[in-house]
Structure formats: C-alpha cells, structure tokens
Fold each of these.
Amino acid sequence: MASYPGAIAQITNNLIINSLVHAFSEQNDSGDEITIQVKALAESIELLYGDNGCKLDEITKAQLFEPFYTTKRGKGGSGLGAHIVYNLVTQKLKGSIELITDQAQGKTFKINIPLTVDL
C-alpha cells in the first residue's frame, strides 16, 4: 500500500475516541466492544470499524460528519472528530466512508481506501 499511514492512524484514533466518549457513555448490558476488520480488495482496502454502543438518532445520523456537530456540547466535545475522519478518508486518502446503523446496537463505519494514493 502506498498511502499516508499517519492519516490512517488518525482515522482509527478519532473513531476509537468517539466510541469511548459518545457511544459508551450510557450503560451497556452486553459490555462495551469495538471491532476493527480490514479486508484487502483488488485495488483498495475495506476497513470496517464498529462499536456496540448507543444508537444514533436521526438528527445525529444526518449531521455526524458536519464540522462542530457534537452530542457533548459543553461537556468537552468539539464536534470535529467525525468531520476530520470524513475529510481524511475522502480528501487525503481519496476514499469513501459510509455510516451503517441497521444493526440492533451501535454503528459501523465502512471505509474504502485505494491501495495507492498519489503522495
């Protein structure tokens, strides 16, 4: 893979922090869990990042990647974590990101990144 490892590290770091701060703020009877799966495709990698935390309401789903949107306003949230993830994936790495929320609990981010990015 010819890409930007720092950007990939920042993406996973921001997603983990978002899960810890937002998704796991409520009591979860099944235990807090984060999963990361990476699959090599023909010309890209697919990264699935998921947590089993709280569900997102419709407003949050619609605004999640917007700058300064946070569910923790006044409680330490800047509203930039998901926005930075979106920009790194789509601009820096020339990939795509999709939010999947059809599971019973939590959310999954499906990230597709080309194997080669012009450095």
Amino acid sequence: MFNTVLFPVDRSREAREAAEVVSNIVKTYNSRLVLLSVVEAKPDNDMNSEPEVAKLLQGAKALFGEQGITAEILEKEGIPSFTICDVADEINADLIIMGSRGLGLAQENPNESVAHRAIDLAPCPVMIVP
C-alpha cells in the first residue's frame, strides 16, 4: 500500500515524535523510506550550512538504522511546502508523513503552515502527526 514513504525532517520536537509513526508504517508495509531536509535560502536560517543539514540527515538515518530500517537521504533548497511536494512527485511517494508544530491554526492565516500547504499541494496522501 505504501511502497515509498517521504519523511521531511527538521530539528523540531514534532519531527522527532513523528519518527515513531514513520517507523511503524515503514515496518508494517516494508516501505522504502526517503528522508528529506529542505533548506530555505534565508540569511537568518541556522540550518543553512551544509554540515548542519548533513548532520541532521545522518542522525535521522542512524536513528532508523538502529531499528533495522534503511533510509535514503535527500537535501534540497527551496520553499519547504513546495519542495516537499515536488520531491514526493519525483520519487513517486505513496505517503508523506510530517510532524506539525500546530502554529498554523493559531495564526490569522492557517494556510501559511508548511503542513497545511503540503496537504493542499501533495501528489499523495499526507499524514500529519501532532
């Protein structure tokens, strides 16, 4: 059912918590797992450096490796919601699993959250883990 699962990762607590759900689904469906880090081209973004992104992705890959899950890693630059959906299309993802900070609903325009935009734009189902 879920042959390829895309898991966008960042350093948020929500992404770490979503990892357990990702692990369960990947194991249940024997899915291919692709980890993605999207770097926004902003001068104040502390995740702009290649070493930081590489460290994040390698750490996530190792975490899944400890559970017997092989993960592929991708690093892209762009607007997160659009890039996540573009990558999902490129890799023929059957499911995108994302953590949600829950900030979008508290703001005046809930459509501004990455998760909300991904739901609207994704070429496949999106599971949001609160």
Amino acid sequence: MEIHKADVQELDRRALTLLGEVVGRMKDDQLPLPTPCPDWTLHGLIRHLVSQNEGFAAAARGAGGTLSVWREGDLGGDPRAAFEASAALVGEAFTEDGVLDRPFVLPEVREGGAFPGRVAIGFHFLDCVVHAWDVAVTIGVPWEPDEELTAAALRIAERVPEEGRGPGAAFDRRLPHPDGAPPCHRLLGLLGRTPRGAGGSC
C-alpha cells in the first residue's frame, strides 16, 4: 500500500517532531555514547541528522546533486539547537508549492537520476522515524511512534532493497522477527535493528 502523496508531508512533519522531541531530551554528557548505528557515536548521529535535513532541504530546491551538501552539518556548541535549525529548514522546504512533484536528486541513495518529491520525502520520513529509535535507545528514553506513523514507515521499509545494505550503508541487512511480532519490531527488523529497551514493546 502506497502513502498517498497528499499525506506524506504531514507524516514527515509528525516524524520530524517525534525525532526532535527525542533529540531534545539528550544531555551533553551523552554525546560520546555509542549508538545502534555502528559507525556513529551520538554526536556523530546528530551530525548526520543535521546533514540529512540540510541535504533534503537543498534537494527540494534543486541543489541536492552535490554530495558535500549532505555532509556539512555543523553542530557548533549546541547540538540540540543545530538540529532544531535544520529541522525548521527542511520543514519549510517540504511545504513549498509543487514540492511533491519536483525532482529530488539524492546522491546518497543512488547515483544519477532523480526521485519525485513525494518519494524522496517518504525516504526522509522513514529516516526520522527510525533514527528517533536510534537516539532514544542510546539515551534511554521512550520511542513511541503512533500506529499511523509505524504503519506508514512499515510500508516504505518493506520496499527498501537488500542490495547495498550492510556496514557503512544507510541500513543494515534485514533481521528475522517471530510470527506475530508487533509492528514496531517488524519495522526495526526490516531496517537491520534489534528491538531493545527504548520504552514500550520496542
């Protein structure tokens, strides 16, 4: 089941809020902690989130083709404020007229070609939902996406190909889950994560 293009902007806004609420609860002394993303400490993950927000905002405005715009996130002296600024930037870009049908060039997803805006925003939405779990489990706070966010993220995660997954990639290889596992477990497993200790059943 596809996410209707008129809904993806609102879903992304809510996912970005979910992520922002978790990021807002981290403490400075937690920044060196390892995260479920093997290559990143919490500091590195927050820098990645800032970079991705800035990159998607640039892509929405036709300037996403240069790889450097996806890697220049600067946390300065206040990582939370840096994230908030980047979230405001991408949130504004994603609400511009016609953005759903604009071509987004996403060099970190694939070389050459572009994605329709509604598809690219779906990628950002999925990243926000799942990286919220990465931050939450690192700092020991709840991760509680609602049923609609989880169901929508599952629909996208089910279409992420196995090709190109693994260490250093956006997602690790899929992990099996038992029959009857709750949707949040299935979502995390589809993206190579093992459910553990971030509140609720995940």
